[in-house]
Amino acid sequence: MSAVVCEAVCRTFHQGDALITGLDHVSLEIQPGEFLCLSGPSGSGKTTLLNAIGALDTPDGGEITVGGQRLGSLSRAELAELRLRRIGFVFQAYNLIPVLTARENVEFVMQVQGLSAARRRAVADEMLAAVGLAGLEERRPAQLSGGQQQRVAVARAVASGPDLVLADEPTANLDSHSSAHLMDLFEQLNGERGVTFVIATHDPGVMGYARRLVRMLDGRVVADEAQTPQRMAHE
């Protein structure tokens, strides 16, 4: 069973009196365990496609299937459950909760899932250690650097055990050193846990990690090719 199937997905937006095409009949199939990058300039449709796959936005046409479930046939509650159980999100703006500690931010989704306090803490501390933040569990976002906040966001995204992680420009606010470490972590989670990664980026260094590169332009897929990963140098 495919991790994601997009069939002729369309999405338009109203901008004043104009109708803007965000996605133009996008068809794409992603297998479990893939490490895929969506590339293209701003406005090419990368983020729009991620939001549609993650059930954060609803297409105007076509169909998206995630883990065998057709999103268009699910209720709002069922979509929320799918996002909670199956999908992890890493946003460019981190989206951490300012009043919570790093540990509490990572625990948040697991708490909603109903895991016990002891289990949440154990998993959160394990994931924070995995992203290089052991010893910083009690710090709030304002006490962390941008790179550290992004690592907390990654730990939160994967702590709940998703099958699929969607990352939107995850290195946009990071220096090259932090970017390389973050991508190494994604690659490790992909290899060790079999998590499927779909990463939207315009960063050539991030694209180098992908084993499959899908190029978008004006809401369409214009190229879809396998490649040999070329990792960033650690400065």
Automatic annotation (TrEMBL):
PROSITE patterns: ABC_TRANSPORTER_1 (PS00211), ABC_TRANSPORTER_2 (PS50893). GO terms for molecular function: ATP binding; ATP hydrolysis activity; transmembrane transporter activity. Keywords: ATP-binding, Nucleotide-binding, Transport. CDD domains: ABC_MJ0796_LolCDE_FtsE. The keyword Protein transport does not apply. Residues 4-235 form the ABC transporter domain. GO terms for cellular component: plasma membrane; transmembrane transporter complex. InterPro entries: AAA+_ATPase, ABC_transporter-like_ATP-bd, ABC_transporter-like_CS, ABC_transpr_LolD-like, MacB-like_ATP-bd, P-loop_NTPase. SMART domains: AAA (SM00382). Belongs to the ABC transporter superfamily. Macrolide exporter (TC 3.A.1.122) family. This is ABC transporter ATP-binding protein. The lineage of its organism: Bacteria, Pseudomonadati, Pseudomonadota, Gammaproteobacteria, Cellvibrionales.
